[in-house]
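Q: Convert this sequence to structure tokens.
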Amino acid sequence: MLVLDDLDRGLIHALQVDARASFTLVADILGCSTQTVVRRYRRLSAQAGLRVVALPAPRSSGTHQWFVRLTAATRTAHDIAVALARRSDTSWVRLTSGGTEIVAIIHTTPTGPDAHALLLRDIPRTAGITAVSAHYLLHTYLGGPTAWRGRVDTLDAAQQARLRDESVTGTGPGTGAGTSTGTSTGTSTAGTASGEPVYLLTDADRLLLDALRDDARLSYAELAAATGSTASTVSRRLAELRARGALFFDVDIDPSLLGVTVSALLWMQIAPSHLDAVATELAGHHELAVVAATTGPTNLVAHALCRDAEELHHYLTRKVALDAIARIETAPVLRTYKAAATLRVG
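A:
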């Protein structure tokens, strides 16, 4: 099994700070040669499943997100999970609870003939599914653009600041850096809770995001070829989308390489008056990679990543033992079939 060293971890952290940082810049920050960083990146991609992807912000893409829990017979659960993972409208497909429950995030359009088709038509007709529970994602406290702290604990503040400063100036794979880093359509804007307008993606934006979905480190020349545009136009458009918060980058890598052997989803029931305070506190816990408010009998879901069962037990009994949490259900993750946008099954 591949063992990560400080250079590997520094590279992963750098990509989390700026997914499109040039390998030359990353090498300078890490104190090694560009060739070494390129070799490490390729090795992590080949042996550790490292993927850097770009995803649209849900508010800008006009989609809704649902946590869906499916109960299935053990003999059919694997095939159903594989089928879900192959769909373009799903992410984070996992097998939990002794191999009888599949949990996935499903992205739906709010209107149109195919709105909620997977929820209302496709899943109910699937043989082998005995129960379905859908939880509409209301707010993400941790995850998506905010990375799990377990993979962002290598670079110091000055190194991170330098990466962010360079990203503002536009340095990236498109400037000769080398090879090609955890959650709104339309023509008008809608207001946010703060009163600022939400940018809604155009068809040209979606074409660019489609090119970035599998590899967010494609050069500007490659992106121009994929979108029928020019490198300068693509560079300018991508910078604008980033500035508007219309997309975010995610780094996908096998968490076991970062020392995680136990993964679990925590489904919590909390009084609405305490929900925001509890979720905000949990979002600061280094054991959690996701904290999100949802609809349903359990209104807060979290994803815990721990070194072993003892650490998970310590976390549940010492840090999550909050009076405001009326009930908590722990569902161990047995297998991940799909991450943010990366299929992990053949």
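The chain has twelve helices and twelve strands.
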